[in-house]
Amino acid sequence: MVHILLTILKITGIVLLALLVLLLLLLASILFAPVRYSGRIRKQEKGFEKMEIRGRVSWLLRAVSLSGVYENGQFCGSLRIFGISVRTFGQAERKAASGVDGGRTPEVKDSERSEAAGRMSPEEKSSRQSEGTDRTPPEEEGEKASEGADRIPEAKDSKVSEAAERFSDISSDQPSAGTGELPWEKAVRFLEGIAKGTGAFFRFLFRLIGKIFGIPRRAAKAAERLRKKLRKLKVSCTQWKRFLTSERFREGMKLLLEETGRILREIRPRKIKGDLVFGFDDPALTGQVLGAVSLFPAAFAGEFRVTPVFEQEILRMNLDLAGRIYGITLVRVFWRLFRDRNIRFIYRKLAAAK
Q1: Residues in CB range of 79: below 8 A, 6 or more apart
Q2: pLDDT tens-digit map of 19-56
Q3: What is the DSSP letter of 49?
Q4: What distance in Å separates the CA atoms of residue 264 and residue 179, rounded to the nearest whole number?
Q5: C-alpha to C-alpha distance for 31 and 280, rounded to whole angstroms
Q6: By C-alpha distance, which of 202, 201, 181, 180 is closest to 190?
Q7: CA gap 93, 86 in Å, rounded
Q8: Which of 310, 317, 305 has the alpha carbon at shortest distance from 287?
Q9: pTM, entire model
Q10: Angle at alpha carbon of residue 196, lines to 191 and 200, rounded to 5°
Q11: Which residues, listed in sequence order, are joined to residue 353 by a DSSP beta bridge?
């Protein structure tokens, strides 16, 4: 019994150790296996419609890769895991969707209809046949319709004569409205109309006077609301000014800029080769752009050439670049930012402002 228990514990320990080793390998691959990227830009003709841009981001010897292509104003891309396409984007996605949805042909629909007819039970078939036999032929239907049309005028004449007799009986029994009303009743109705009109006029007048005399009160309330809003805005501006000029904010932003620069230095392209030919109608503008490009040392490396043209407007580009970044670098940067008290102070302040 003890031997079986020890064997079970041994197997459990081996499984847990194997899972721990796999977890450590995965963590080490995430931290120390670089994420590599490469790109290519081609532009030879005038206009950006003919520009060709290709890019790829891969990890762990392209076990996971994301690639994309922009060409002739269209974009397409794909996500691959161990060489198997998992997801497509852009034009490729639309083509795949159209291939799946548009694969059905009319022949398939006809076959479905024939199968449905084949599944129909014998009772349904017999009922449909009986319905077809019970229908009246068109000639008999036409004779019945003509007989009905001959009988319609006679029925209409009889109904009209009956309605006229009833109306004559009713009109002879009831007196007219003009002969049954007395003169004093007309005077009373007239005075009631005058009273209603006068009451409506005075109600409108009093309502208008109330609105006119209520304008100062509404203006005073609006002024009070505006004063409260301005006071609140003043307090908010004072608080934000105190926050932006505080020592903790300056130190936190300084650290944030330093770490951002470290990430940019790590992610910058390691290999750049190709050539760039550019020019504008204004030679001064060409010189300004050349001065801006000269701020990047990689632009004047041995494998990359920049050629300015001061006589005409032109833009040709043939560029290949590649670079990488390690996961441990990002973890180190985020850990430094998380540990800093000034960064946490800035984050809490911005979160409370939202």
Answers
A1: 64, 65, 66, 85, 86, 87, 88, 89
A2: 999 999 999 988 999 999 999 999 876 766 678 899 99
A3: G
A4: 103
A5: 46
A6: 181
A7: 11
A8: 310
A9: 0.56
A10: 150
A11: none
